[in-house]
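TL;DR need structure tokens for one chain.
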Amino acid sequence: LRRDMAAMNECLEVRFFGALPESWRVRAFFRFFSGWSSLLTQHYAVEAAVHCDYLAAPTCQLPSNYRQKLLDFHRDVDKQVAAVGRMEANILEELTLAADWTTIDPISECAEELRVLLYDLSLAILEHLKEQEETLPPLLRTHWGAMAPPDLVTRSITAAKSAAFKGLRPQIHVKLMSWVLYHLRERDETRY
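>> reply
TL;DR here they are.
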């Protein structure tokens, strides 16, 4: 998620995206963003079903409202993702209007708004990831030890697949878990 967010923010910089982006750049960005949104949905499904319910809940060390706060955060992020997604039509409409030769300053206000929306979304997700990484690993190591809990990979794949096929974003079927497992095995074959 971090690399993708960094790449998307960089892609939207004026030096790449342009002050008044060409329509192919807009469509390409949003095609990637749509796939990334599906990946994010799968990540959050695994986070709730596996990290919270399966791994962390048995430790009895989480606050009682932890799961609800997690789901509220996911809903807030979904709203931000939807706001970013709606910008494609706005930018393309703005490009149509900018084709008028009487336009003096060809700058896309919607593209600038998109930059701000994506930056805010990325910041929220990065803060959340940092919080998760500070809270969960010590807790899980204490409870589960150094070995991976039974059925961890199977549960993660099941949660990701259920999120991918709930109709949330049916136009793109990202095979998140296969990709993650491939890279984890490349990193350390003995663990996976």
